[in-house]
Specification:
Blueprint: H1 3-8, H2 14-26, H3 32-40, H4 44-60, H5 67-76, H6 82-95, H7 104-110, H8 119-133, H9 140-153, H10 157-178
Helix pairs in contact: 2-4, 3-4, 4-6, 5-6, 5-7, 6-8, 8-10, 9-10
Length: about 180
């Protein structure tokens, strides 16, 4: 069975497509590059499903990610389709720790999504930014201030909690380190 077969088979529901492709990725039956090449030729819903399958796989085996995936996702954060934005942000949250010195553009592309009208986009963005914040990179100086500002504006408690938990963790580590 190929990627095309999975997407053409109407008996396979969306979650089934995600788990099938995700399992292929985790057991190296399929390469991320192949999924991304396929996704680029698809309409938004299938593209998002491909990214969701990568999210499924990187949650289990984050190390299957490489720099080209981070670059792809960083660009995908600017996609018009909300689901592409949120699935990309979730993958970034899963893999950010692998690329601590390569996240400046990723952060720049995440920040506009932190004020998106869609709650799911904001939540996934908060997840990614929180995971990046926990890495304690040079970006934290600016990122902490931005996240504190986002927290003040955010009305959804689930989104706000992502930020507050990360801020609390980072600030408690700072205090522990200074004693």
């Amino acid at each position: 069975m190929t990627l095309e077969d999975v997407f053409q088979d109407k008996t396979i529901k969306a979650k089934g497509k995600v788990s099938t492709i995700g399992e292929w990725l985790t057991n190296n039956t399929l390469l991320i590059e192949e999924v991304l090449a396929y996704a680029e030729k698809q309409k938004a819903t299938n593209k998002a499903t491909c990214i969701e399958a990568i999210e499924y796989a990187t949650k289990k085996v984050p190390t299957i990610a490489d720099e080209s995936l981070l670059d792809y996702l960083t660009k995908a954060l600017k996609d018009d389709e909300p689901r592409v934005k949120w699935e990309s942000a979730k993958v970034i949250g899963n893999i950010a720790y692998l690329f601590p010195d390569q996240l400046v553009q990723t952060i720049n592309n995440l920040l506009p999504n932190a004020e998106n009208t869609g709650t799911v986009v904001r939540w996934a963005t908060a997840y990614a930014l929180a995971e990046i914040l926990k890495l304690k990179t040079e970006s934290n100086k600016k990122l902490i201030l931005k996240i504190e500002t986002l927290c003040e504006k955010e009305e959804d408690n689930g989104v706000k909690k992502k930020y507050l938990d990360a801020l609390k963790k980072v600030k408690s580590q700072v205090y522990k380190g200074s004693t």
